Amino acid sequence: MRAEPAAAGRDPLANGLHEPGLALHIEDLTVSYHGKPALWDIDINLPPGVMAAIVGPNGAGKSTLIKAVIDLVKPVAGHVCIHGRPYREQRRRVGYVPQRTTVDWDFPTTALDVVMMGLYGQLGWLRRPGRRERERAMAALAEVGIADLAKRQISQLSGGQQQRVFLARALVQQADIYFLDEPMAGVDATTERTVVDLLHKLRDAGKTLVVVHHDLQTVQDYFNWIVILNVRLIAQGPVREVYTPENLHKAYGGQAALLQRGSFTGGRGPHAPMDLSS
After folding, report:
1. What does the pLDDT average to over 124-135?
2. CB 3.0 to 4.6 Å from 6: which of 28, 67, 99, 251, for a disulfide?
3. pTM for this structure?
């Protein structure tokens, strides 16, 4: 690990840094809040067509990583390329689902209107959505199972229904890579299954999914790639190779004792507590 992050002004497309064969290439990324590093010197390479979990303890920088990739926070240093080009050139190929708790759900708009907002990047802000756009938005709502709620005010929806609306908004963009910030947090089991099935369908269609995830028990069931963070990068790669007690202990320390043995058996049957604190 380098002692200092790379200079922020270096051209990411110089010297072959763009890695065109990768869906996501992050090099030397450092983000700081009020002088304290939230992410430090992160290098990540994701091949296309994977469903990747970003895991780590609270304060590890998981959400910050996604926000830095899509220019919602400004890094101190580092470069990000999506399919070989900077995000500003690829934004139409990117879908984003924020944390549900960060959204003002009292804003007076309907579920259908929220989904159609996902088309503004293609339409431009001056062109109004027409019949074709409404049909695409309705199809996305149908795909997440809530077409019957299209005219419902978003404030009247349950937490799980709100999450489905945001997922439909991302779907209607027809992106190549999706970033989702804890899409399964605080939703019911039925919604979680719907979300996971839809993400698997996107992955099987060749899309790349990058998901901030909090439930270590489901990592092996849901994902085929993993990025383990705790401000610094701990490990990255296929779940079957990287999701190990040793790597989790490096990230979580004594908190890893909350895991269960069944997490490492490939199933979710009855488990005994697993103490990784030693």
Report:
1. 74
2. 28
3. 0.83
